[in-house]
Design brief:
4-stranded antiparallel sheet, rod-shaped, 27 strands, mainly beta
């Protein structure tokens, strides 16, 4: 009987392996391999070179000489699948809110020991909705021949564009001296995704005098992740401050004694004013004087 066979018991499919026994002069060695293995060279000698198939079984060798054959020697073998080398596909860009599966996979190739391996590429988490930016997505290559080849996982980069919305402030008015009304706004173009919402407060150009003041975006943004959106703020919306009505009423009963002189000698005509702000804006005050008919 030949000596113990040396060689791998778990060779990889498609690889070249050597199996051998100790050589004895004058002995011929006959080798038998598992079903789909290929014997490249060495039949009749104590050492053979083979191409590994996927079938499990025994590598068997029988020695013989002029006196006849001996008892076969066997080595149990269980091949493992080959792992292809992958060139990963490219992807198309998507917009925030779209599932990963909408980023089309294009191209890609798989080879193993210089042979092209056919198969398919697919995202492992296709329903994921990634944030805007560059997203690293896991892709799996599944070979058509899963008997001989392993599946392979890798990563591709998906560009996720920001979602575009337009936000417009509501025009507001107030009377000079009053507190500002709440500055409100609404989404006027585009859509928010899922439970995302607009939050925050606009600001306006500073000023308290009568006139129009632009309303700006201020702290308005989308939560929870503002970076997923490109917000266009509509310009031209204003807070308009209008004039405040003030009523001036001369105090009744004012008089003077006739002195034959013209109105230059009239006393100052006293009056009451309703609506003039007091204390809050001390710079506001009446100037000039009332006059009377001749």
């Amino acid at each position: 009987q030949p000596s113990t066979i040396t060689g791998s018991t778990a060779p990889t499919f498609g690889t070249t392996q050597i199996y051998s026994v100790s050589n004895v002069t004058g002995v011929t060695y006959t080798w038998v391999l598992p079903g789909d293995w290929t014997l490249s060279s060495g039949q009749g000698t104590n050492s053979i070179t083979v191409v590994v198939g996927i079938d499990s079984g025994n590598v068997q060798v029988t020695s013989s000489n002029s006196c006849g054959g001996g008892t076969p020697r066997e080595l149990g073998v269980t091949p493992v699948k080959g792992t292809p080398t992958i060139t990963w596909p490219t992807t198309t860009a998507i917009t925030y809110g779209a599932q990963l599966s909408t980023a089309a996979l294009s191209g890609g190739s798989a080879t193993y020991l210089s042979n092209t391996i056919t198969g398919t590429y697919a995202y492992t988490a296709p329903t994921t909705v990634p944030n805007a930016g560059s997203y690293s997505a896991q892709v799996r290559f599944t070979p058509d021949d899963q008997t001989r080849y392993n599946t392979v996982d890798g990563n591709v980069t998906v560009t996720v564009n920001k979602r575009a919305i337009t936000v417009t402030a509501d025009n507001k008015t107030k009377t000079y001296g009053d507190d500002d009304p709440p500055l409100t706004y609404s989404k006027t173009a585009g859509d928010l995704y899922g439970t995302d919402e607009l939050t925050g407060t606009p600001t306006r150009v500073t000023g308290n005098d009568v006139g129009s003041y632009a309303i700006n975006k201020g702290g308005v943004n989308v939560t929870p992740t503002s970076g997923n959106y490109s917000i266009t703020w509509t310009v031209g919306r204003t807070l308009t401050i209008s004039k405040r009505d003030v009523t001036v009423t001369p105090i009744a009963g004012q008089s003077k004694v006739y002195d034959g002189k013209d109105r230059i000698s009239d006393p100052i005509i006293l009056f009451e004013a309703a609506g003039l702000l007091s204390g809050e804006l001390p710079e506001d005050a009446f100037t000039g004087a009332l006059s009377r008919n001749s």
